[in-house]
Amino acid sequence: MKSLLAFAVAGVAAVGFSPEERPVQILLAGDLKSYLSPCGCVKPMSGGIKRMVSAVRSIRASGPTIFVLNGQFLSGPSRQDEMKSETLGQALKASGVDAVFPTKSDLQLAEVLLENAHRLSGETFLSATGEAAQTWAPSEREAQGLVIRGARRWTEELRDAQPSLLLWDGNLESARSVAAKIDWPCLVLYRSAAKPSAALESIGKATLVGGGEKGKVLVQVSWLAGKIKAARIIDLGPQVPDDPATSQLMAQYLERVEGERLLEKLPRRPSEPYAGSLSCSSCHQEAHREWLVSEHSTALRTLEADGHDADPDCVGCHVVGLEDETGFQSRQKTPRLANVGCESCHGPSAAHVSDPERNRTPRDARQSCGSCHNVDHSPGFQYETYWPQIEHK
Ligand code: HEC
Ligand code: HEC
Ligand code: HEC
Ligand code: HEC
Does 24 score more than 90 pLDDT? Predict the structure, then answer.
């Protein structure tokens, strides 16, 4: 409760304005790419819909607010993506979202998923101005007396509509060129993976705002009578409390993922038999001791703590050999292969265990790190600094 209060107070509060000159708080999120959970695997992790919804609701509670989402919405057309898009739609509804403008690539990827999310969100998705696009989404929405439009190119129709909020399916460069044609007060929300900045660029009467990616931050712009009063970046870090209703949605989503056994349905390739880390301990005592005290030996427990232990998005890097026919299936079925084990790096070694002199372990273990310690999940990874932490012989 304490953190919730502290957070609400920290918002750009509506204090100091009389009612008739009360600014509208415009909140923007960029490319979401179906990120429901906080992004990345290194603390402090940013983002996730539980925090996003809680931040939006807390600001909404203190005055007139508009929340828009501009950018890539989906990450793919799979069954899991379908579940994610539905969960997102419901979470957006809980946030009271005002408009969502998906990208052209979203439409090409899976229009039916978008249509579904549109419905669940309370029909908030927009189609592009001046494009014979989807029939299920309107081309314009109004919120707090402001007109919101989405566009992928400049059209006369756009000029006539004179939206105050333009959700632009393009990068900064193309947003600059459309801003140059706009001669009315307008916020142009463009797409960019770069971390957003509160120092906003203006061109004529238009101001450019980027939303970042993977739902890590919200950009808040305080807008009064066509003018920007303030702007700031809200980092959706651990200081933002989880929204209870959205936490429930998230739990339901993970239950569905588990219930439909998506992990079991992943494709697997033929492989040599695995032995499990315990079977190495008799001959490689020191290596085994080192491993037991490393974080690798508890990597699945990390996922179990948050209910992600049957989630195909996560499990592969937190166990042994998920992509192999002989690899991890579940803690119940393959307990020896739970967590990141010796064979995650050295390769399937049952043959080596039964006759070490004749059979060597199959893999150059140095090459293995990058398959899990990639830029998204271990941005600070360097072999020189990480290996000494788990060094063994
Ligand atoms: C019965 C004893 C025994 C067991 C059990 C055993 N090893 Fe070994 N291991 C050896 C011996 C002996 C060597 C040295 C072989 C050599 O140098 O020719 C060795 C060498 C290795 C090497 C280094 C060189 C190489 O290319 O083979 C690795 C890595 C290794 N073992 C991993 C494992 C793993 C992983 C397990 C468990 C899945 C395991 N070992 C289980 C006895 C064992
Ligand atoms: C199968 C995937 C996988 C492979 C391969 C892998 N790791 Fe990891 N590593 C992880 C996971 C997952 C964690 C986090 C475990 C946790 O905290 O639950 C981790 C954590 C670590 C940590 C602890 C980091 C910290 O912040 O304390 C170090 C060090 C590390 N790995 C080094 C390595 C090195 C070096 C290699 C290659 C030789 C390697 N790892 C290969 C998945 C992997
Ligand atoms: C591509 C491989 C990969 C995937 C996919 C992956 N992780 Fe990780 N995870 C890692 C690695 C590597 C680390 C250790 C990072 C480090 O310390 O540098 C880690 C660490 C973590 C940590 C520990 C953070 C800490 O500092 O204690 C958590 C929690 C976590 N992952 C959760 C998840 C969840 C939830 C998912 C799925 C939504 C997921 N991971 C998907 C590789 C992965
Ligand atoms: C995170 C990846 C990782 C895990 C987990 C891991 N190792 Fe290793 N292991 C390595 C790397 C990397 C080396 C060093 C290879 C080199 O020097 O080129 C190594 C070296 C070894 C060596 C010495 C090989 C030699 O030629 O000197 C043995 C034996 C060994 N590991 C056994 C094990 C056993 C047994 C376990 C589990 C208890 C284990 N390792 C877990 C990555 C790993």
Answer: yes
